[in-house]
Amino acid sequence: MRGMGVAKAMIEPKISLVLNTYENPPALRKVLGALEDQTDKRAEILVADDGSGPETAKVISEFSGRMPLQHCRQEHQGFRRSSILNQAIARACGNYVLFLDGDSVPAREFIADHAALAEPGCWVQGRRAFIEESAVGGFRAEVWHLARLFVSGKLKGWPKAVRWPRASIRYDQGQEGILGCNLGIWRSDLLAVNGYDETFTGWGREDADLGNRLYHLGLRRKLVHGRAIIFHLNHPLVPRDRLGDNQVLLDQTIAERRVRARKGLDQYL
Question: What DSSP state is assigned to residue 160?
């Protein structure tokens, strides 16, 4: 463990934040506004757009002159999140990739927290609180507003909305709670596992597949509460018609102890 501390001190994360989105311009505007207001403004931001229309492009254009921002877009041919994420990873200049969803508003310390949490031999998983759909339009990630939402019952998972005096951290290789949002991974580790697996199409299990391949590479998950806080803006569920097929692919990854994606990041490098 002493050696790990030395290694951590020798590697400074240069963060590339990959923000995935599809056809939700109001939420994207809130997320980009929160990223503009970060205490640590050194991250480059790559919007991974799965084929949204002109309103999304307009929102991105509004912010592009005020922050280091790239728009990575592919044509929409169904839910192809893995593909656009790989394309954004390939264009990232940092040595540490931080993933955030376009419907999840980060607290002001989000990037600074992830920079402090980054550690060799691990990937970092933060948590999220939930904002009820009826409160999304007027949502602001400010203490007074969060208190009002809590009292009204429109803030769910409130312990995950609090930046505690000390973070709660657990190292594991668990299956529960693997999320592709609020996720930090060294770019070298993403290259080693060939990024996301694009054989996963439609909603579901692509993040668990990536997490398990990182486990098979020898990494542990660093599961964090009380830091790197985000607020998910609830919305109607997307179709989940491919979930069963994707579960089969995930089961194969686990059974075979697969490390590299079948169809992955290398095609864009």
Answer: G
Whole-number Å distance between alpha carbons of 265 and 55 = 28
Q: Work out the burial of residue 101: count CB atoms within 10 Å of its CB; fewer than 13 is exposed, 13-18 middle, 19 or more buried.
A: buried
Mean pLDDT in the chain? 93
- Domain membership of residue 3 (yes or no) is no
| Cβ-defined contacts of 53-56 (< 8 Å, 24+) | 53/23, 55/25, 56/21, 56/23, 56/24, 56/25, 56/28
Residue 173's CATH number: 3.90.550.10
Neighbour-count burial of 242, counting CB atoms closer than 10 A to its CB (0-12 exposed, 13-18 middle, 19+ buried): middle
Judge residue 21's burial from the number of C-beta atoms within 10 Å of its C-beta, 0-12 exposed, 13-18 middle, 19 or more buried: buried
- Which pair of tokens denotes residue 113? 């927290």
DSSP code at position 248: H
Give the β-pairing of 15-21 and 69-73: unpaired
Tens digits of residue pLDDT in 145-157: 888 898 999 999 9
* Residue 206 maps to a domain: yes
Asked whether residue 8 carries a pLDDT value surpassing 80, the answer given is no
Residue 219: closest CA among 139, 75, 118: 118
